Amino acid sequence: MRFDVGGPGYGVGGETRGLLAAARRSFADRGRVRGQLEECARRLDEPLRIALAGQLKAGKSTLLNALVGQDIAPTDATECTRLVTWYRHGAAPRVTAYSPEGSHADVVVRRGRSAEGLPGAHGLTFDLAALRWNAGGAREVDHLAVEWPSAELAQTTIIDTPGISSLSRDVSARTSRLLTPGGTGVALPGADAVVYLLRRLDTADVDFLEHIGAGTGAGGPLGVIGVVSRADEIGAGRIDALHSARDVASRFAGELERTGLCQSVIPVAGLLAFAAATLRQREYAAFEALAAAPVDEVSAALLSADRFARPDLPLPVPPDLRAHLAARFGLFGIRLAVTLIRLGVRDSATLAAELTARSGLDELRTVLDVQFAQRAEELKAHSALTALARILVANPGTEADALLPRVKTLLSDVHGFAELRLLGHLRTDELPLPPPDLAELHRLIGGIGVAPHRRLGLPPHTDIHTQREQALTAVHKWRTRARHPLADQSMVNACLTASRSAEGLLEILHEPPTTPFARIPPPHN
């Protein structure tokens, strides 16, 4: 068993690079294959790729805007929502259309406006009607690439995918091909991890998540997080809507985790999260005016979005601005903003922070950091290794054949991969452990962060000697549990994974923090 606990997977990343270099030497005279291998190697140096997937109108583009904190993804139903769109960091905003053959054309971007010059509810629009291709002549658009100056995109490339339940089978297939490359040919994996958006949990969602899970060993992404999107709609826009959504998320989580399809399920009001991230002073002033109005009049007006925008209502905000607020924040967001101001919020920055926290976005960011960002090197290495395995299988008869057993061994033995799999299955297996021990197991395998002190449940500045003692105690505890005569196989596997995580920490804490992470063999039982 190979260990990369406590931080980026330098060990598995280094071995992956070595295997790719050896494979490139073997295919030096085969340009196409060598190009595929070079692409795999480049992926290790690029930002982590996270795909947003889900059914039609699940709120993928709105959530993308909220995560980036800028209005960069069209949210209205246009031709763009039928295409895979890549969002990457760039020095200046630019949108490019690509054909299946590789031709490209610049895309005209239009920005909608709403009341009093405020941003429209649907923000940007990508105009695909008059593309001028570099190679001349009309071309079919295969995908779009958006470059945008953003600190978030500098660390993570986000891929917005078409709805999996599109009426067009070809449109749905684009998402499937991106996330689970299949068939006998070689298709490199498009994403390293997936955020799957759910409005409800039906057969299409479960089937697609099972498809992703089945594709993990053949090039599919290793990490999957579920999001109960448009969570405020679950409670019909009531002030307690997020509480209702959290109950629904818990139910979804239970159903999904019994199958091990998602590592976490989180409720997020994406519309509110994005509106909070881009809150304007004019909008705050409108909320202040509503907060000063009679409570009964405001409550009656908020029975529906149409009613709220009626011009005959005696409210201190113009009807067109009220319609704008309803489109941007939803009834839940308006109720929440007005309530927060009545409770003492006195400026737009504080209101934006409070709305963001209550939207669920902060919780999602934390989970994305723990599950994906802190394991970025492992997730990228997993994508590269599974792609390398497919390339080697598809091109037999060279010296590179000898690399395949090593690739398969890495995929099965890297401990970081085992931890990710266990995080996805931890509650699935319903381990017969007391709640404190389950919490310790979850923490030890990196469920709340991969830094040693987080795994051990210690303060950040705890001395190394104390951390080593705690890690050694964990090794003994979980190895003993693994040997219990009544433990079934799932219990044994979970306990051995925890003990090996603790052993890896002992190795890390024995060395200076700047040295590469050590690998140690599994314990002999």
Please explain how this structure is put together.
- This protein has 525 residues and is an alpha/beta fold.
- Helix content is 50%, strand content 12%.
- It has 21 helices and eleven strands.
- The strands form two sheets. The chain has a nine-stranded mixed sheet. A two-stranded antiparallel sheet has the order 5-6.
- A hairpin with a 5-residue loop joins strand 5 and strand 6.
- Helix 2 packs antiparallel against helix 15 and helix 3 runs parallel beside helix 8.
- The longest helix has 24 residues.
- It starts with 9 loop residues before the first helix and ends in a 15-residue tail after the last helix.
> What portion of residues belong to β-strands?
5-15%
Mean pLDDT: 82
Reported for the largest beta sheet, the result is:
9 strands, mixed
Distance between the termini: 14 Å
Estimate percent helicity: 40-55%
> How do the strands of the widest beta sheet line up side by side?
4-3-7-2-8-1-9-10-11
Topology, number of strands: 11
* Overall geometric form: globular
| Backbone CA Rg | 25 Å
Determine the number of helices (DSSP H or I, runs of at least 4 residues). 21
Q: Look at the helices and sheets and give the structural class.
A: alpha/beta
Which spans have pLDDT < 50 for at least 5 consecutive residues? 1-10, 513-525
